[in-house]
């Protein structure tokens, strides 16, 4: 156990030092990412203004708050792309990580976790700029903040699990674009990425409970911007934990089968 | 003493889809796939004792890398028995992985942007090496390979040879008992090759590790291995003393030159291997080489005279052809 | 006119190449379908809450979506692949091949690549546009149609010029790939008419990144909103951008050839 903590801390430290050398590349990526929520924000603010100041319970200020927090949550839940698994298998990187007495997925989780630390630090000035521009209506309590802190790291873990599962399909076939694209489309709509889920029709909101998407996106945002009861906050954390555990179990089962196949066919 | 590596009738077969050119064949291929079996490793057996340094020789595609991958647990054998340190490598038991190391010449484990020292620290964390012991081992290796100034530089700023040295140090920090080295000196200059070879020899001496080394370079094998195993077409061709192999088949050198009139009798100098336009290649007995080259230079008007050791492929081919004759 | 003939040859080869990768057609159709579905979902979500946005009704915005899809398809088929290839060649120094051919280098590097399957978006976008026009009871005149097609052409030239300027900076700066990614993100703003955006964003999307001219202006034309002023403005801006692009390109090429001695 101590060895794993040591490994994680050491890997994260390395990832931080590495990524810290590329602030400009990181910033370009983040700025490009911001275009999306700004567009959503601006459109919905226009709708709200059109309808007399509020729509679906959100004022323009509330939309600003939602989509600005969105940028942090999004930065936190970006993980290794499932498209990258084909490259990784073919390049022989997978073979090398299989030689270590530690499950290769720990490497992913640890490395990206370290990167996230850099991302959070770089995000702060961006958030300040966005706040100045769009004047969000944001008054979180201390409890909101604490729950949010856990929620974003849980979101990171959830999406690591789900996208690793997707990526592992590559062990069986390389014709994966259709599956991935459909997955991301469903995620866009059901996660709270496109719009706050409360603006979706009832049946969609109920549907979203059964998928991991909203727990990696919408829930953390809502936890911070302060609409949720204490009860709901903790139920949310519980759901996140449940998805992490379920994801981890699924990943280790699929991994065992995948590696057996990989070892039969070769890298 | 129980063998540390024990292989019996090990085989690895692949099913490769057969594909022909042309539209019709491609269309047919959509419905019915025909496969053919490629025998990468076709029933080899050997035992290796602890502390041995064994050279694993063979031309490209002979099955060396496939065998190494099976020994390190990356590939499941198709048939046969395989045991290393009493483990079944394919099970990839973590305790097993902690006692071995695999170094493949062209694949790196070190972080590109950071100094090697940081990557070494990660190895410490991965293998759970106690800090004091780690520091001692690390400093010992840095000393042995003279890397003190280089370990602080980002790996991307190092030359290929320096990077290879770092990779090897990183691979040995956990003091593995078994080393699988796949072409560790590939692409390096002669000085660097020598340094790495002496390091491996020193490691073997100090820690009694068992080393299985594949290489293209006869020099690697000559410097390190008392015993060689020769593989060709997935089959074991020779398993025995290196000196015997060397004496028998490195007894010749290749002498090549350009000459205006290639159509003459060279038999007094050596056996003609090939005449390609104005370029002549001769095979000359080792002990006669200096005499022959002196005579060539004085008797004939030759250009660009070169003298080379027999390439290992030729040695292997000789072994192969000897085997065939011996069987008849 | 050897330049034009050369261009056509490249086009022909590019198209034949695409036929080798028929799987890409199916992937493209899926992607178009998904983009359309999510676009319609977004549109419906907005119009569940309101009946018009910045003076644009639902059918109008459907028309905008159609134009957005068409233009996007064309950019990804004809403009972007050429610019990305140009970026790589400048960075790796392999631009020489293009520079030593007996045709205008700018023309050459702009027409070499053509992703045929991206044109699926042009077809789909056109269909969406026609559906939108039906919903608007075909309130179109000869002027709106002329305005539409001319605005499309002007918009395309503007986007092309803009891309060429950005890509040409690769002659001096290395980091251009990331700027290209930024454009993709900003282009998504074209999904909605720029009228509804706050002023600062509208100006940015008009003069800095000509998204407005690529989508909003043609959509305004076909839905009968385009003023002569705006059209003339588009014409002027197109000329200006095209000249700037040509100039930057020529300077860049001179610089490049001098550098690689």
Helix/strand structural class of chain C: mainly alpha
Q: What is the overall shape of chain C?
A: globular
How many helical stretches of chain B? 11
Number of structural units classed as domains of chain B:
2
Poorly predicted sequence stretches spanning 5 or more consecutive residues of chain C: none
Shape of chain B: globular
Alpha-beta content class of chain B: alpha/beta
- Report the biggest beta sheet of chain B as strand number plus sense, adding barrel if it closes: 6 strands, mixed
Question: How many E strands of chain C?
Answer: 2
CATH superfamily of the largest domain in chain B: P-loop containing nucleotide triphosphate hydrolases
Q: What does this 3D model show about the protein?
A:
In chain A, helix 2 (23-50) packs across helix 6 (104-134) and helix 7 runs parallel beside helix 12. Chain A is mainly α. Chain A has one domain (2-265). Chain A has helices spanning 2-20, 23-50, 60-77, 84-91, 93-98, 104-134, 142-168, 177-190, 202-208, 213-216, 218-225, 230-265. Chain B has eleven helices and 13 strands. Chain B has two domains: 5-11 and 47-247, Rossmann fold; 251-309, Alpha-Beta Plaits, CATH 3.30.70. In chain B, helix 4 runs parallel beside helix 6. Chain B is of the alpha/beta class and 328 residues long. The model of chain B is unreliable at 322-328 (pLDDT under 50). A six-stranded mixed β-sheet of chain B has the order 5-6-7-3-8-9, sandwiched between helices. In chain B, strands 11-12-10-13 form a four-stranded antiparallel β-sheet, covered by helices on one side. Chain C is an all-alpha fold and 261 residues long. Chain C has one domain. Chain C is 78% helix and 2% strand. Chain C contains eleven helices and two strands. Chain C has helices at residues 2-20, 22-49, 58-92, 96-99, 105-111, 119-135, 142-168, 176-187, 199-208, 211-222, 228-259; strands spanning 52-53, 56-57. In chain C, a hairpin with a 2-residue loop joins strand 1 and strand 2. The longest helix of chain C has 35 residues, at 58-92. The two termini of chain C are 30 Å apart. Classes of the chains: A mainly alpha (267), B alpha/beta (328), C mainly alpha (261). The A-C interface holds A 24-25, 28-29, 31-36, 38-39, 42-44, 46-47, 50-51, 55-56, 175, 177-178, 181-182, 185, 188-189, 194-195, 199-201 and C 23, 26-27, 30-31, 34, 37-38, 41-42, 45-46, 48-50, 52-54, 175, 178-179, 181-182, 184-186, 188-189, 191-192, 196-198, 201.
């Amino acid at each position: 156990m101590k060895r794993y903590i040591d490994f994680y801390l050491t890997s994260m430290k390395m990832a931080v030092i590495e990524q810290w050398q590329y602030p400009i590349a990181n910033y370009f990526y983040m700025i490009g990412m911001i275009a999306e929520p700004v567009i959503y924000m601006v459109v919905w603010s226009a709708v709200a203004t059109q309808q007399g100041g509020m729509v679906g319970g959100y004022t323009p200020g509330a939309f600003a708050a939602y989509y600005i927090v969105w940028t942090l949550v999004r930065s936190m839940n970006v993980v290794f792309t499932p498209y990258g698994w084909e490259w990784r298998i073919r390049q022989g990187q997978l073979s090398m990580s299989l030689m270590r007495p530690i499950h290769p997925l720990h490497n992913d989780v640890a490395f990206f976790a370290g990167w996230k630390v850099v991302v959070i630090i770089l995000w702060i000035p961006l958030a300040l700029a966005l706040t100045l521009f769009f004047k969000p209506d944001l008054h979180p309590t201390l409890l909101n903040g604490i729950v949010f802190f856990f929620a974003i790291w849980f979101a990171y873990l959830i999406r690591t699990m789900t996208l690793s599962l997707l990526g592992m399909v590559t062990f069986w076939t390389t014709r994966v674009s259709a599956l991935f694209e459909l997955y991301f489309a469903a995620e866009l709509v059901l996660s709270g990425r496109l719009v706050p889920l409360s603006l979706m029709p009832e049946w969609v909101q109920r549907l979203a409970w059964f998928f991991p998407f909203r727990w990696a996106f919408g829930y953390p945002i809502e936890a911070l911007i302060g609409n949720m009861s204490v009860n709901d906050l903790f139920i949310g954390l519980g759901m996140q934990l449940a998805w992490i555990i379920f994801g981890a179990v699924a990943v280790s089962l699929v991994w065992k089968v995948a590696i057996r196949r990989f070892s039969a066919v070769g890298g | 003493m129980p063998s540390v590596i024990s292989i019996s009738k090990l085989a690895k077969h692949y099913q490769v889809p057969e594909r022909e050119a042309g539209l019709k064949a491609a269309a047919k291929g959509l419905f019915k796939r025909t496969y053919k079996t490629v025998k990468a490793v076709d029933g080899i057996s050997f035992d290796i004792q602890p502390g041995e340094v064994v050279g694993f020789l063979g031309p490209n595609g002979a099955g060396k890398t496939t065998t190494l991958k099976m020994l390190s647990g990356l590939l499941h054998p198709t048939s046969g028995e395989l045991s290393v340190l009493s483990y079944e490598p394919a099970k990839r038991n973590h305790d097993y992985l902690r006692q071995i190391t695999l170094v493949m010449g062209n694949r790196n484990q070190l972080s590109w942007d950071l100094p090697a020292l940081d990557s070494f620290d990660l190895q410490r964390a991965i293998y759970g090496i106690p800090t004091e012991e780690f520091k001692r081992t690390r400093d010992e290796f840095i000393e042995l390979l003279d890397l003190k100034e280089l370990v602080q530089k980002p790996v991307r700023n190092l030359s290929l040879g320096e990077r290879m040295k770092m990779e090897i140090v990183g691979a040995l920090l956990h003091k593995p008992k078994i080393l699988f080295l796949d072409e560790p000196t590939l692409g390096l200059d002669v000085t660097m090759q020598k340094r790495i070879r002496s390091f491996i020899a020193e490691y073997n001496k100090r820690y009694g590790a068992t080393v299985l080394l594949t290489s293209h370079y006869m020099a690697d094998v000559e410097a390190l291995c008392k015993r060689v195993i020769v593989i060709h077409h997935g089959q074991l061709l020779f398993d025995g003393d290196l000196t015997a192999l060397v004496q028998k088949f490195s007894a010749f050198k290749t002498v090549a030159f350009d000459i205006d009139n290639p159509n003459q009798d060279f038999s007094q100098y050596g056996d003609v291997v090939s005449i390609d336009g104005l370029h002549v290649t001769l095979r000359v007995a080792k002990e006669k080489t200096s005499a022959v080259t002196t005579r060539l230079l004085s008797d004939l008007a030759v250009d660009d005279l070169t003298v080379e050791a027999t390439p290992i492929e030729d040695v292997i081919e000789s072994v192969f052809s000897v085997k065939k004759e011996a069987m008849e | 006119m050897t330049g034009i003939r050369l261009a056509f040859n490249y086009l022909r080869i590019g198209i034949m190449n695409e036929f080798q990768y028929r799987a890409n057609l199916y992937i493209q159709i899926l992607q178009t379908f998904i983009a359309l579905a999510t676009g319609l979902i977004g549109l419906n979500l907005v119009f569940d809450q309101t009946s018009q946005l910045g003076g644009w009704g639902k059918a109008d915005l459907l028309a905008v979506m159609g134009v957005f899809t068409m233009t996007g398809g064309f950019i990804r088929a004809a403009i972007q692949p050429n610019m990305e290839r140009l970026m790589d060649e400048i960075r790796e120094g392999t631009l020489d091949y293009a520079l030593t051919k007996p045709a205008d280098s700018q023309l050459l590097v702009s027409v070499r690549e053509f992703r045929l399957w991206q044109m699926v978006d042009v077809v789909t976008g056109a269909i969406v546009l026609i559906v939108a026009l039906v919903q608007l009871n075909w309130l179109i005149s000869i002027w709106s149609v002329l305005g539409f097609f001319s605005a499309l052409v002007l918009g395309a030239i503007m986007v092309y010029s803009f891309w060429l300027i950005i890509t040409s900076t690769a002659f001096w700066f290395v980091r251009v790939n990331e700027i290209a990614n930024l454009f993709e993100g900003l282009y998504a703003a074209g999904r909605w008419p720029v009228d509804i955006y706050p002023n600062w964003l509208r100006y940015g999307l008009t003069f800095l990144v000509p998204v407005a001219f690529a989508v909003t202006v043609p959509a305004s034309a076909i839905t009968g909103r385009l003023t002569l002023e705006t059209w003339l403005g588009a014409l002027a801006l197109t000329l200006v951008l095209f000249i700037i692009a040509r100039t930057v390109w020529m300077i860049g090429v001179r610089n490049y050839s001098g550098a690689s001695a």
